[in-house]
């Protein structure tokens, strides 16, 4: 592996660590910050910090996704393309479960922390972690580079921490109500369903927001044709020169 490839993997880990500190750190500070400046102001500050850091992470990934050793190459295997797309589409249903009020994201409505026990929460109490792991598995299968493997390790580690951190924050905020939710749900997908603690109610998945997720998957599928251009743009950017 070339030194530059090792460098790009190290930078990726550092960028992921920075994003984790901003994102999980901001979540940890939420209660105190909202008490000081209000929920809307804190959401705007949090988004202002989180979104640019996420954009940098995505840009670096697109520019360097094939760096390092090619550990496997399954792109020509029959059925691989639909398998990767199907797995990715399912991952989006977990990553963006639409259990929140969309107008709270830009703080049009006052952001609130709630306990959810319906829909995809019946499958997993932490659907975003499940979706991220599934996204990592499908993309690692397709790309097969050591850089991709390092990226997946960083992303999965952050989301496993977020599982613990999220439960800890909800327990502190909701107390016994969260303990009841925890006892009737599982982190591992379908575990609570299989052991009888949950029953799937398919009507709960038929929500208008799910149509938005389907549209988003279609847009991402269409926009993949521009990945090479986006990666090249990142490679020639001033940010690339700064990080390299």
What does this structure look like?
- With 244 residues, the protein is an all-alpha fold.
- It contains eleven helices and no strands.
- Helix 2 crosses helix 3.
- The longest helix has 29 residues, at 146-174.
- It starts with a helix and ends with a helix.
- The mean pLDDT is 85.
Gap between N and C termini, in Å? 16 Å
Number of strands: 0
Overall pLDDT metric: 85
Estimate the helix proportion, in percent.
55-70%
Major beta-sheet overview: none
Rg, rounded, reads 19 Å
Q: Which stretches are poorly predicted, pLDDT < 50 over at least 5 residues?
A: none
**β-strand amount:** under 5%
Please work out how many helical segments DSSP would assign.
Answer: 11
Characterize the overall form.
globular
The computed structural class is mainly alpha
Order of helices and strands: HHHHHHHHHHH
List keywords for this structure.
11 helices; mainly alpha; 244 residues
């Amino acid at each position: 592996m070339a030194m530059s490839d090792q460098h790009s993997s190290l930078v990726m880990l550092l960028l992921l660590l920075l994003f984790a500190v901003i994102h999980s750190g901001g979540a940890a500070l939420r209660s105190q910050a909202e008490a000081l400046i209000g929920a809307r102001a804190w959401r705007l500050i949090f988004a202002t910090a989180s979104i640019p850091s996420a954009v940098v992470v995505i840009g670096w990934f697109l520019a360097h996704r094939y760096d390092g050793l090619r550990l496997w190459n399954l792109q020509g295997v029959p059925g691989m393309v639909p398998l990767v797309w199907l797995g990715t589409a399912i991952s989006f249903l977990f990553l963006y479960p639409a259990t929140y009020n969309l107008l709270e994201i830009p703080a049009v409505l006052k952001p609130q922390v709630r306990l959810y026990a319906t829909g995809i929460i019946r499958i997993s109490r932490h659907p975003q972690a499940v979706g991220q792991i599934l996204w990592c598995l499908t993309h690692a299968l397709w790309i097969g580079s050591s850089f991709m493997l390092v990226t997946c390790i960083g992303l999965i580690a952050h989301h496993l921490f977020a599982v613990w951190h999220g439960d800890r924050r909800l327990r502190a905020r909701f107390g016994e109500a969260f303990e009841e939710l925890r006892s009737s749900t599982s982190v591992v997908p379908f575990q609570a369903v299989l052991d009888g603690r949950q029953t799937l109610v398919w009507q709960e998945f038929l929500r208008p927001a799910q149509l938005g997720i389907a549209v988003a998957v279609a847009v991402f599928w269409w926009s993949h044709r521009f990945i090479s251009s986006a990666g090249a743009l990142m490679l020639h950017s001033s940010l690339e020169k700064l990080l390299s």
